Amino acid sequence: MAFPILSAEEAAELIKNDDNLGLSGFTASGSPKVVTEALAAKAVKEHEAGRPFKVNIFTGASTNTWADGALARANAINRRTPYQNTPDLRQRINSHDAHYFDLHLSELAQKFRYGTYGELDVAIIEVAEVFDNGDVVLGTGVGNVPTYASRAKKVILELNHVLPDSMYGLHDIYMPLDPPERREIPIYKPSDRIGEPMVHIDPAKIVGVVHSDRYDGIKGFSELDDVTLQIGANVCNFQLGEVHAGRLPKTFLPIQSGVGNVANAVLFGLGDAKELPPFEMYTEVVQDAVIELMKMGRCKFASTCSLTLSDAKEAEVLANLDFFRNKVVLRPAEISNSPEVIRRLGVIAMNTALEADIFGNINSTHVVGTKMMNGIGGSGDFTRNGYLSIFSCPSVTKGGLISNIVPMVSHVDHSEHSVDVIITDQGVADIRGLDPVQRAERIIDNCANPMYRELLHDYLRMGKGGQTPHTLSASLAFHTEFLNSGDMRNTRW
Q1: Does pLDDT of 308 surpass 90?
Q2: In 3-state terms, what secondary structure has residue 206?
């Protein structure tokens, strides 16, 4: 080993208050696991001694309990972007102990290269293998590692011994040129490889290697319930209808799918739809369902930024990489989420919403308009550039206390201009080519839960004219009623 071997604590001592840190990975996959935990412990000691200690965290997407979680519990995060899903960090963000700014996942790497957020002091990168010349083989998630490795003043490597040497060859590392020299990204099908299997790091930047032996720590998804299964069936049936109508080619198109139970249900539904040929994915995450579909022969290839797998499924995949080697490629986030490539390939975008309004706008980030849940993630990258943009959610949550179809969303992440189809357990609203009132009628009738349809139709009738007949004094009445009584059904116009 050409580089110093450090303990996690020794590595943490190299990081100073207010440093900008770039973390590897995309979701918990490939995120640091031991240095960040040691850094959190250092922050606690500094705070106890009366000294300030917070760092600015730039990632690929969310991380894990040893990174975002530990640092949030230690109140050691000042600025954070671009996506998170750790409860402890969410609490810090909503109390403004951490300053979170949301961002499309495709944009962060290039903005860092543009100098938008200043210099990068330290990159902490999980690797499967490190060579004496500074070349590294990454783990299960890529994120923004190529940019962070090139821009950081110092690089700390976490060599994770859970990851086999056979990871070599799974990655396709490519960085586009920046304007005005940028050229097209030459990906014409999901399986195209255009880069290199390793990340090249200036060996002079590598200040040490820290040993690790942890899986990514992702829990398996819960059993699919009836509502989730119905949403999945509705999404699948809609797409089959589009094939039969000739609006989707019979060969189908690459799909993108978010993370979660609804996404799993949709994927399994597509896998069961024998009328469709085996399909490809151009997406940002591959989760457990995709691995099963590959074993069944239903998903023939997946281009992704991370293998977001439960620990048990991760162990299975790592033990059988020879089988998956020609079925998966791992790319940087600015490539997996590239608007250019998504548009060229004709990706079918399937994402989840917190709520949708009757005119087709989507809130995917803020509960009751104020409390950050996770962030926009890559949904905007795919929604705005896909061949077809689908959003799904349950019609109600909390046993009906909350309607997820509302008069007006309390926060807008995706406007009506980017949304083609809204799907709930109640049905499908294809809103392409409809004016606002037509969209409203279709969404209410097809997607709203029956217990809320009359209220929503009443709201629509209250409108005093205009193309989009909102009644501004009542547009957020569902949300204010929930805050007042805990039950949107109590809304009175």
Answers
A1: yes
A2: strand
- The packing angle between helices 261-272 and 226-244, to 10°, is 50
User: pLDDT digit string (tens) for 430-469?
Assistant: 999 999 999 999 999 999 999 999 999 999 999 978 999 9
Round the average pLDDT of the chain to a whole number and report it. 96
| C-alpha–C-alpha distance, residues 140 and 327, integer Å | 14
Residues near 68 by beta carbon (within 8 Å), at least 6 away in sequence: 57, 59, 62, 77, 80, 84, 86, 88, 89
Annotate 207-271 with DSSP letters as a single string: EEEEEE-----PPPPPPP-HHHHHHHHHHHHHHHHHHHTTSS-TT---EEE-SSHHHHHHHHHHH
pLDDT (0 to 100) of residue 219: 83
Nearest to 199 by CA among 174, 170, 178: 174
Q: Are strands 152-160 and 206-212 parallel, antiparallel or unpaired?
A: parallel
Round the CA-based radius of gyration of the chain to a whole number and report it: 23
Q: Do domains 8-212 and 226-487 have the same CATH topology?
A: yes
pLDDT at 275: 83
Strands 199-200 and 255-257: unpaired
126 neighbors 212 (Cβ within 8 angstroms) = yes
Q: Catalytic residue positions?
A: 284
Contacts of 460 (CB under 8 A, 6+ apart): 358, 437, 440, 441, 444, 469
pTM of the complete model: 0.95
Which CATH superfamily hosts domain 8-212?
Answer: Glutaconate Coenzyme A-transferase (3.40.1080.10)
The fold adopted by the segment(s) 226-487 is: Glutaconate Coenzyme A-transferase (3.40.1080)
pLDDT digits (tens, 9 = 90+) for 129-155: 999 999 999 999 999 999 999 999 999
The answer for residues whose C-beta is within 8 angstroms of residue 450's C-beta and 6 or more apart is 426
Q: Cα separation of 423 and 394, whole Å? A: 8
